[in-house]
Amino acid sequence: MQEGEVIFELPLNIAGMLYDGSMPKLMAEDKKMKAILIDHGYQYQDPPV
Question: Is the pLDDT of residue 25 over 70?
Answer without folding.
Answer: yes
